[in-house]
Amino acid sequence: MDKKYVKKSVEELKENLTEIQYRVTKENATEAPFNNEYNSFYEKGIYVDITTGEPLFMSSFKFDSGCGWPAFSKPITRKVIKEKKDENHGMVRTEVRSNIGDAHLGHVFNDGPEETGGLRYCINSAALKFIPMDKMKELGYEEYLDELDI
């Protein structure tokens, strides 16, 4: 799986990402709550790392947490993310980064729904690209189709 997802150079990222996508993924910025692409978006499909295309989250794992950013109960697999202690802004949180691209995605908290494990992955829309269910096979993500709630 990892062979098709490659970490891109700073130059490539600056050329291919919007300013907010670059600031979020490479400078650890946070986009505005409630005013982002996927906060209130609930189509069936897969969310991938905007910098590499690496699969990260399924729409089946998405829920409305009311926090203003897309929230997921878990990643596709723990191998696709890295967690890191974040002591910025006067608080201690757990940062979530993509494994291959090392892109800043957001943070994980222990206040998610108990029935799905109790975690809330609070993720910036700017760090994600959504692949709709009907495009997953065509774009090489067919192995994840069975995991969608259809």
Automatic annotation (TrEMBL):
Its EC number is 1.8.4.12. Keywords: Oxidoreductase. The active site is at C122 (nucleophile). The keyword Oxidoreductase applies. It catalyses: L-methionyl-[protein] + [thioredoxin]-disulfide + H2O = L-methionyl-(R)-S-oxide-[protein] + [thioredoxin]-dithiol. Residues 10-133 form the MsrB domain. SUPFAM superfamilies: Mss4-like. Belongs to the MsrB Met sulfoxide reductase family. This is Peptide methionine sulfoxide reductase MsrB. Coiled coil: none annotated. The keyword Oxidoreductase applies.
